[in-house]
Write a structure and sequence with these properties.
245 residues, alpha/beta, Rossmann fold, 11-stranded mixed beta sheet, 24% helix, 29% strand
């Protein structure tokens, strides 16, 4: 399994405590259960990649509904979900017994490097100040593909806040990280080993009312990096201004 329930970075646990709210648990128990629940950006790469791999690690799996989404594209895929919220993992194990789940912080894994053909994270990295560490850890876990999203800006990036994302009565918040486009591309250039290819698709979209940002000019972007020998110069296909609104 990806991580033992006790091996958690407590700084991540504290930063991500908003996900433990009753409103968050209720939302993810009822949503993100089928392919119709995919965001437009998630449709860029996930269906085609999930269909060609035998195993997938989903970092930030919440209540596990994404396991059902993925299995509509590949019924035989081995789906393993990891989340920092124990209550989410309990729900996932109960509601989706055909998949595997563990509590984990996304940085520390007990599985050896290269344990999965696909490592995926959606809606996770831009809400975590340790996004660089998460990205490197996920890259180590995959032997083929890494699929994840980031929030980008053509101008200045910065760290804002997302306040009470699910309308919580008790005040909770999360960091909201926005990267300049070139800064985000550099994250993937610095991966070790270097990717053989990186595909990026994104579109401009206004931030939610729950966010306070340095720059509200926002791009929702998904990155698909493919791992190979690392010897060849990476092929890049970047389109972060798609007209899909």
């Amino acid at each position: 399994m990806p991580a033992s329930d006790a091996r958690l970075d407590q700084s991540i646990v504290a930063e991500q405590r908003a996900w433990r709210s009753p409103e968050s648990l209720d939302y993810y128990r009822r949503h993100r259960q089928g392919p119709n629940d995919l965001y437009r950006s998630e449709r860029f790469f996930l269906p085609e990649v999930a269909a060609r791999v035998a195993s997938m690690l989903d970092v930030g799996c919440a209540a596990g509904g994404f396991s059902a989404v993925v299995k509509t594209f590949n019924p035989t895929i081995r789906y393993v979900g990891v989340d920092v919220v124990p209550e989410f993992v309990d729900l996932a194990r109960r509601d989706h017994p055909d998949a595997e789940f563990a509590v984990g912080d996304g940085v520390h894994f007990e599985t050896p490097p290269g344990s999965f053909e696909l490592v995926h994270a959606s809606g996770v990295l831009h809400l975590n100040l340790r996004f660089r560490d998460l990205l490197r850890a996920m890259w180590a876990q995959t032997r083929r593909y890494l699929l994840c999203d980031l929030r980008l800006s053509p101008g200045q990036g910065g760290v804002g806040r997302m306040e009470s994302p699910f309308g919580e009565r008790d005040g909770v918040s999360l960091p909201y990280v926005v990267l300049n486009v070139e800064e985000a591309l550099d994250l993937f250039r610095q991966l070790d080993p270097q990717p053989d290819s990186v595909r990026v698709k994104g579109y401009r979209h206004p931030p939610s009312d729950a966010t306070t940002l340095v720059n509200s000019e926002l791009i929702m972007a998904f990155f698909l990096a493919e791992k190979g020998s690392g010897a060849a110069k990476a092929e890049w296909d970047v389109d972060v201004d798609l007209d899909v609104r």
